[in-house]
Amino acid sequence: MIFIAEIGINHNGDLDKAKELINMAHECGADYAKFQKRNPDVCVPESQKTKEKIVPWRKEPTNYLDYKHDIELSESDYDAIDKHCKKIGIKWSCSPWDMDSAMFLTKYPLDLIKIPSAKITDLELLEYCAMNWQTLVISTGMSTETEIDKAIHTIERVWKEHVPNLPTKLYIMHCNSSYPALDEELNLNYLITLSEKYSQRGHIIGYSGHEQGISASIVAGTLGAEIIERHITLSRSDWGTDQAASIIREQLYKLIRDLHKIEMWRGDGCKKIYESEVPIRAKLR
After folding, report:
1. pLDDT band for position 239 (cuts 50, 70, 90)
2. CA angle, 18 as apex, 56 and 41 as ends, to 5°?
3. What pLDDT is recorded for position 275?
4. Domain 2-284 carries which CATH code?
5. Which of 25, 40, 175, 241 has the smallest number of Cβ neighbours within 10 A?
């Protein structure tokens, strides 16, 4: 089981807070701390750029474009993140939201890159990432079956054409893109559908959860998800759009602990009398 602790934009552009979240991910046993990288000038739609935005770190209202610039980490920040992760012993990764960001990330020795749900229809971005990384993660939130299959086919085609002799690995994540996702819309059985459709092609199925609580993510693990991603936060009362769909330290620790127990809990399926039951059996029978 691989666990990605999604820091995303919950650092609000603050490097010290980003490091705190990395430390939290490491201390709770996550395999990766993950961020999101954007060029706001490219990513923000023209219709949104000048809309007013009120943020707690500015005394006067700003606009949406400036807000998105405010919460972006700089190149020196990412250099510091790379150094910090190496120092404490946790891997880090990132989701590029545009070509500029994907090209920026090639400077780091990242062993996987994640394509967010919002960008799986950006075939240029998919092709570039497949050209530069042999391990990719894609999320499937707010996407149709046709869009998902086209994205996967695009990655498969690029790998076949450009790195036919190198090992490749594609993780396909079931996801609901609401923040937070409603219980009645989690549809965890779609994990089984994804597995039936893509496992035979050598791909690995996972779950990127935005629900409140941790139980559904554990169920996802029992349904075959081999990689789990959850947003993390120092406090859900922190300012930001993703905080309500994030889990705090105690939840993160319990979730990772229990995900690693799933195989033990499942057992081998054979009925047996365990040693701990012998004295109870003698007493009650």
Report:
1. confident
2. 65
3. 96
4. 3.20.20.70
5. 241
